């Protein structure tokens, strides 16, 4: 994978009724980090804060956690998050990708507890950590997709790395005198 393919600047959003957890990634697209927790006021004020981050970080995409139900269906909360996310995407002129965020808040709470912090006193930190988990999940999935798209066929350049039967088939296919090579 080339560095150009790997590089991405994304914001991860954990959109709630009262707060929005916001995470960003390093320039390499490898590590997500919680940035801020935005106390929701008005749509315009929320967009202004996000626009500042988008500009500073040269963001290319918004990654939004979608709260599916435990059965995997889109409930009313997920539909509400989609509406808000679409409005943000339009206002910021950015594409949106969704990530299944089931249990990310639970993971974030567990992380706080492991740091000996009471989740009930650190709600804003939970939202920020949940956004980082959402974005990290997307970054990992993206990296896997990119790797699978450019992964060379095993042994394609080195018949010696293939099994004997596969190597023989590769050599036969590469033989210009073999009449079946025209089909390959």
Uncertain stretches of 5 or more adjacent residues: 158-184
Looking at CATH, which topology of the largest domain would you report? Answer: Nucleotidyltransferase, domain 5
In order across it, which strands form the biggest sheet? 3-2-1-4-5
The main sheet comes to:
5 strands, mixed
**Helix share bin:** 40-55%
The CATH homologous superfamily of the largest domain is termed YqgF/RNase H-like domain
SS element count, helices: 6
Mean pLDDT: 78
Features:
184 residues, alpha/beta, Nucleotidyltransferase, domain 5, 2 domains, five-stranded mixed beta sheet, globular
Structure notes:
This protein is α/β, with parallel strands linked by helices and 184 residues long. The chain has 2 domains: 3-150, Nucleotidyltransferase, domain 5 (2-Layer Sandwich), CATH 3.30.420.140; 155-184, no CATH class. 47% of the residues lie in helices and 17% in strands. It contains 6 helices and 5 strands, in the order αβββαβαβααα. The protein has a 5-stranded mixed sheet, with helices on both faces. The model is unreliable at 158-184 (pLDDT under 50).
What's this entry about, in short?
The protein has 184 residues and is of the alpha/beta class.
Helix and strand topology:
Layout: H1 3-6, E1 10-15, E2 19-25, E3 32-39, H2 43-57, E4 61-66, H3 76-92, E5 96-100, H4 104-114, H5 123-150, H6 164-174
Parallel strand pairs: 1-4, 4-5
Antiparallel strand pairs: 1-2, 2-3
Helix pairs in contact: 4-5
């Amino acid at each position: 994978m080339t560095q150009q393919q790997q590089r991405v600047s994304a914001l991860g959003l954990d959109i709630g009724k009262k707060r929005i957890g916001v995470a960003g990634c390093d320039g390499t697209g490898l590590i997500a980090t919680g940035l801020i927790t935005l106390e929701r006021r008005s749509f315009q004020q929320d967009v202004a804060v996000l626009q500042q981050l988008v500009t500073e970080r040269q963001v290319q995409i918004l990654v939004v956690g979608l709260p599916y139900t435990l059965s995997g269906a889109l409930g009313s909360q997920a539909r509400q998050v989609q509406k808000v996310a679409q409005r943000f995407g339009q206002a910021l002129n950015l594409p949106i990708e969704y990530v299944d965020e089931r249990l990310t808040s639970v993971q974030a709470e567990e992380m706080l507890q492991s740091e000996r912090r009471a989740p009930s006193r650190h709600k804003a930190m939970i939202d920020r950590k949940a956004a980082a988990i959402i974005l990290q999940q997307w970054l990992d999935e993206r990296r896997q997709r990119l790797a699978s798209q450019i992964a060379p066929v095993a042994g394609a350049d080195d018949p010696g790395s293939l099994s004997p039967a596969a190597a023989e088939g590769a050599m036969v296919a590469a033989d210009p005198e073999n009449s079946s090579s025209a089909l390959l």
